[in-house]
UniProtKB/TrEMBL annotation:
Pfam families named among the record's database cross-references: ROK
Official protein name in the record: ROK family protein
Family named by the database record: Belongs to the ROK (NagC/XylR) family.
Classification lineage: Bacteria, Bacillati, Actinomycetota, Actinomycetes, Micrococcales
Species assigned in the record: Agromyces lapidis
InterPro entries, per database record: ATPase_NBD (IPR043129), ROK (IPR000600)
Length: 299
């Protein structure tokens, strides 16, 4: 059993989560998942201590080959953080996270595989979620921003966006996240509804739209339609089989899917709701690490 179990860490902007992934079943081992809040503005020592403390809860009934999903910017091959001016983890800039975690966990530095969190999410959906059986697809996550992963036959690629990152793409003279992100949606609602204070979050704006608020409906429809138009070109250039959509904003699927599909302007093109939620990046990171291990062993 141990040889099929991959210990996995997922580092988010406000949390660190850990789990053991059954690489054969492509699922989290029952009882192994745990998450804790972290302060992304904390010191490097405090952040690494929190990550390591969470990782230790996984015990030793696993391969010891660690899969780590982290946000960019990050040197994934070297294991070195490159955060600077992105509003989180600034203290980790230039830190060799591979070496520091290996030391804290008494592990071999070579046992760590680092994976971009958006790529890991996409690979998780490919391994065990909505993208099962797809050859070429793009997976986006909608929340504080627009994350993106591009997958061909189970391997991540840069797809049809700068460095594989859709948030770097410009459309209609603006970066995508200036129109489609938590910040952008809230700002658009505040502007149209003339909210001076107490601007509602996206979930509340969605609830208001369902309740008949015309401004809320217009704001969301504009944002999701814009996203569809912005993605149409990249998806065509990539020759994608489908678009998979996850993230917190995708919980408002009833409001998101119609204008997004309409913006894409391609009749019958599959727009699929992600199935795995918080499990996706962990399963995807383990999937990538397991494939890396098998390749290194020549199997």
């Amino acid at each position: 059993m141990t040889r099929n179990r991959v210990p996995t860490i997922e580092l988010g902007g406000t949390h660190v989560a850990v789990a053991v992934i059954d690489a054969t079943a492509r699922a989290i081992v029952d009882g192994s998942y745990a998450a804790r809040s972290i302060d992304s503005s904390g010191s490097a020592a405090d952040l690494i201590d929190s990550i390591a403390a969470s990782a230790r809860t996984l015990g030793s009934d696993h391969t010891g080959r660690w899969a780590v999903a982290v946000p960019g910017p990050f040197d994934f091959d070297a294991g070195i953080a490159q955060y600077s001016g992105v509003g989180k983890f600034d203290s980790l800039h230039g830190v060799d996270l591979r070496a520091r975690l290996a030391d804290a966990l008494d592990a071999d530095p070579a046992s760590f595989t680092f994976v971009n969190d958006a790529d890991a999410f996409a690979l998780g959906e490919y391994a065990a979620g909505a993208a099962r059986g797809l050859s070429r697809f793009c997976c986006i996550t909608l929340g504080t921003g627009v994350g993106s992963g591009w997958v061909v036959d189970g391997e991540r690629t840069d797809g049809a966006a700068p460095e594989g990152e859709l948030h770097l793409l410009e459309f209609e003279g603006r970066r995508i996240e200036e129109r489609m992100s938590r910040r952008a949606v809230r700002a658009a609602y505040a502007r149209r509804a003339r909210c001076a204070t107490a601007v509602p979050d996206v979930k509340e704006i969605a609830d208001r739209a369902r309740g008949g608020d015309p401004i809320a409906s217009e704001v969301l429809e504009d944002a999701f339609s814009f996203l569809g138009r912005a993605l149409d070109g990249p998806l065509a250039r990539f020759d994608a089989d489908a678009l998979v959509v996850g993230g917190t904003i995708a919980r408002s699927w009833d409001l998101l899917e119609p204008p997004l599909s309409g913006g894409l302007g391609r009749t019958g093109f599959p727009v699929l709701r992600a199935e795995l939620g918080h499990e996706a990046p962990m399963i995807g990171a383990a999937f990538a690490a397991d494939a890396t291990l098998l390749s290194a062993q020549g199997r």
